[in-house]
Structure prediction request, 252 residues.
Amino acid sequence: MRARLVVFPIKGRIWCFSRSIDQSASQFTSTNTPPTVKDLWKKISSNSKPLNANAELLVDFISDKMNNAWVGLEKAPEGSFKNKIHGFGLQLLARVKPSEILLKSITKDVTNVRITYPSSLNARLVRRRLRQVALRGTVIHRKYFYGSVTLLPLTTALAVLPLPNIPFFWVLFRTYSHWRALQGSEKLLQLVRDFSRAQTFSSEVLEPSEELEELVRSGHDETGSLNEKAISDICIKFSLNKTEVLKWRDLM
Prediction:
């Protein structure tokens, strides 16, 4: 699978790195996830795949169940306890760094990337900045993954309370999220290194865009940030999630 990454300056020296939305990828993942524990066990016990492949299958199963539970909270009636939990969850999710969202989007199914960037930017600089994001991700998310794992037993003890164990589910989600971001950063770092060595394929990977250049050049305001209209136009043209892109602009 090929992933398209869109890179552009969004505020001063801050660049945005975002993956174009690929609906087929999410549908492919959901259709290959076992729907029940029985089906999961049958699939794991019947195949001869290595341990890490079965671990991936288990993680995908847990992720699918967490997503379904989140959708259930989202559909809860206004003012209900579940609705309040959903609102609190949105506040927590708003604190997730945009780089983590990017790295999580680089799944194991991604075999190559196409990087679209404004034509005025130097291709080597774009590649170097993307490599820095991936390299930094391997360090940060490995550290926070192990930290989250150590907190799981502590939050599990809170299950004796007569209230939903929100700390446990949040730590479980963060453990999963850091693990996915770590996998994505290692995968992205590998892809960047591969096309750095094979210069003959650089034209297939690096895609300077005159249209993106024009949108960025005409969209900066007096503070040096891209204005709302320019961001909306870029997101529509290159199929980006506007909420995720705005996270890059809001970085300090």
Q: What stands out?
A: The longest strand covers residues 2-11. The two ends are 34 Å apart (CA to CA). The mean pLDDT is 82.
